[in-house]
């Protein structure tokens, strides 16, 4: 029986098998993360990664096999096989490059992070991180080839409390999908985000993040940000967006024009720019070369202009928090807290003195909705959902469906989340999921900020993560964003290198970029023939 014929056969076995499959891929991801860096189980970790890469697409296709989205593939199996063969060829070529030059994985991952490809099929369009998925699959293939040939030649970070909490939250999400009213959405979250990004985390942790590699990735991210801002300027000058009809429609009725460049959402566009700007700012604060200082300052000014045109309030707030973190560590905690407090008081006073300028009227819930772009209404709905089922929640991915049912709104009137991650977690996963989520946040901040003052490289990563965390509180997408996993992976290795005495105390953010790593003996933190 051919692979194409197997898919409808597996799909016909029903939701019980699919629910078991979701739990299975989550367990494979857990084995991959928790077993990485442990010589006795390292090969099992590599095998789990390979199995997860093989199983996740099958699980997704079996779930949507009968949907209109796959009608063209069902009617033209030859085209489907050809597309799969083409993707496989790309993965094999990239894997060969990564196997030979380990640091290429980091650069390829950074290059793929921002880009979502619109895939149209059966009258619907999905925006998927296809380039990043191909890089992850190639990295897993190269990683597996090395680990199955022999153990790593040098130690690298092992799983600790953070990794256990991370995969505990993913595993809990997979289990709670079994009673969700929107199982398909929960499945998509697992196979599109949690599992592949967990594999990305392992791959990044296996790299030797020496200062030159950090600089090379930051320079590449900055170049991409400048390119994306240029496209945003073009959109603004032409008053015409390239993507997302919902933003296009809102621009027709608002007094301002929001740009989103090649992103589907202006807030995700702003999040990417914000993270890059904080990395560049960390480099600027420790820069010792006048030419580098001016170059970084000019780039930051350009990116700030692009961020302002996105009109992303959450991204601007996150940027300010990240800058406050950098200022507190680099200069003075006391002065930073004082200035931040003064700015907050000034902001509250401005709203109180001129509420209409901010579309806000004290005591009016509708005004609060307008001032927060509808978020306050979504938050109230999420809190009500949590109060109705506080222990186990409504099930993974169930927020949008339950919000519609409880508030009697149409599909067009409901968002896909509360736009405040803790509320979404509480509503979907109950107090159990919320407790694991809060413990995970504490573990992440503890790892990234521990002794961070002595390392500008680590400070840049920590500030970006803190800003991203605030962005998730004001918007959405915590573990659904590959940037979260990338910052955690890089920050984990940098913290390990600092404990091992391998990280310079200063100047790391302005070092020269590396050439591709050779395939010879591995450096500390890498695997055989260079890390994957």
Question: Can you give a write-up of this model?
Answer:
- Helices cover 68% and strands 2% of the residues.
- The chain has a two-stranded antiparallel ribbon with strand order 1-2.
- The radius of gyration is 23 Å and the shape is globular.
- Strand 1 (117-121) and strand 2 form a beta hairpin.
- The chain folds into two domains: 3-205, no CATH class; 211-510, no CATH class.
- Residues 1-5 and 510-532 have low confidence and may be disordered.
- It has 532 residues and is an all-alpha fold.
Number of domains: 2
Tally of strands: 2
Spans where pLDDT lies below 50 across 5 or more residues: 1-5, 510-532
Percent strand equals: under 5%
In the sheet with the most strands, the strands line up as 1-2
> What overall form do the CA principal axes indicate?
globular
- Rg value: 23 Å
Keywords:
single chain; 532 residues; mainly alpha; 2 domains; two-stranded antiparallel sheet; disordered N terminus; disordered C terminus
Compact description:
It contains 21 helices and two strands. The chain is mainly α.
């Amino acid at each position: 029986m051919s692979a194409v014929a197997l898919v409808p056969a597996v799909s016909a076995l029903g939701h019980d098998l699919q629910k078991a499959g979701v739990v299975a891929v989550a367990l494979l991801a857990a084995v991959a993360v928790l077993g990485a860096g442990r010589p006795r189980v390292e090969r099992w970790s590599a095998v789990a990664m390979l199995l997860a890469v093989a199983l996740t697409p099958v699980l997704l296709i079996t779930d949507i096999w009968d949907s209109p989205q796959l009608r063209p593939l069902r009617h033209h199996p030859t085209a489907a096989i050809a597309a799969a063969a083409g993707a496989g060829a790309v993965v094999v070529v990239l894997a060969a490059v990564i196997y030979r030059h380990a640091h290429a994985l980091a650069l390829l991952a950074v290059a793929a992070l921002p880009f979502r490809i619109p895939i149209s099929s059966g009258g619907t369009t999905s925006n998927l991180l296809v380039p990043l998925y191909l890089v992850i699959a190639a990295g897993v293939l190269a990683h597996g080839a090395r680990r199955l040939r022999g153990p790593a030649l040098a130690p690298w970070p092992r799983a600790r409390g953070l990794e256990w909490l991370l995969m505990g939250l993913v595993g809990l999400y997979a289990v709670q999908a079994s009673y969700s009213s929107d199982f398909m959405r929960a499945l998509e979250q697992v196979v599109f985000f949690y599992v592949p990004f967990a594999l990305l985390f392992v791959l990044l942790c296996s790299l030797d993040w020496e200062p030159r590699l950090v600089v090379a990735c930051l320079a590449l991210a900055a170049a991409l940000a400048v390119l994306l801002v240029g496209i945003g300027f073009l959109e603004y000058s032409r008053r015409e967006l390239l993507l997302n009809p919902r933003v296009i429609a809102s621009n027709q009725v608002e007094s301002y024009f929001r740009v989103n460049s090649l992103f589907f959402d202006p807030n995700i566009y702003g999040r990417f720019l914000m993270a890059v700007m904080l990395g560049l700012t960390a480099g600027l604060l420790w820069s010792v070369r006048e030419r580098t200082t001016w170059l970084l300052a000019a780039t930051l000014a350009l990116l700030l202009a692009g961020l302002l045109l996105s009109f992303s309030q959450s991204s601007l707030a996150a940027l300010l928090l990240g800058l406050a973190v950098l200022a507190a560590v680099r200069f003075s905690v006391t002065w930073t807290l004082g200035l931040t407090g003064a700015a907050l008081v000034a902001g509250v006073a401005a709203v109180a003195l001129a509420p209409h300028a901010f579309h806000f009227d004290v005591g009016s819930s509708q005004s609060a909705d307008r001032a927060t772009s509808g978020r306050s209404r979504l938050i109230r709905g999420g809190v009500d959902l949590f109060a109705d089922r506080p222990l186990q929640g409504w099930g993974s991915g169930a927020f949008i469906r339950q919000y519609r049912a409880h508030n009697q709104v149409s599909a067009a009137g409901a968002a896909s989340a509360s736009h405040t991650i803790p509320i979404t977690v509480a509503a979907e996963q109950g107090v159990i999921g919320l407790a694991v989520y809060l413990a995970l946040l504490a573990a992440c901040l503890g790892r990234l900020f521990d002794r961070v003052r002595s390392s500008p490289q680590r400070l840049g990563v920590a500030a970006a993560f803190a800003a991203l965390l605030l962005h998730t509180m004001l918007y959405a997408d915590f573990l659904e964003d590959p940037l979260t996993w990338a910052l955690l992976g890089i920050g984990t290795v940098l913290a390990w290198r600092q404990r091992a005495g391998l990280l310079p105390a200063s100047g790391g953010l302005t070092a020269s970029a590396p050439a591709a790593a050779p395939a010879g003996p591995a450096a500390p933190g890498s695997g055989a023939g260079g890390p994957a």
